[in-house]
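Q: What would this chain look like folded?
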Amino acid sequence: MDLTGRLNETLVKAVNNSTVFQSGSIVTLNSTLEAVYKTKSFSSKAKSIISEVYGVNLNSTLNSAAVDKVKSILFQMDTKGISGRSYWYFNGSTANPVFDRLSLLEKFMEAVSDLKNLSTSAKDMINKTYGINLYGTLNESTLTNIA
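A: My prediction, written as structure tokens:
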């Protein structure tokens, strides 16, 4: 979508209907896109797990589908109430929206990467004890179980 030229009715409708602009407000949109941009500077271990689980290559230019997927990661709900708020990484404020726990997201992904590199006997023990299979490709369900 080219916003550098003259606006017309078709372009305005396209902007209005774009999933990028469905974040609630321009302030939230800005904060969200800044957070997406910051994930591109995560460590290679963290980016590797995000790529494996979510199919998003943070080392390349992100298309709208990839941005939407990263947004879904950033807006993950804390359904167990562990973090003390509604979202793991987002402060939940529309007046002052901040993704103040991006370092937690990065460190979690790095820890998952480290788990994948454990010895076979350690991975077997984790699988038998906690039901978490660290062999093969991980998925969102596995990440939820690890968390």
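The mean pLDDT is 87.
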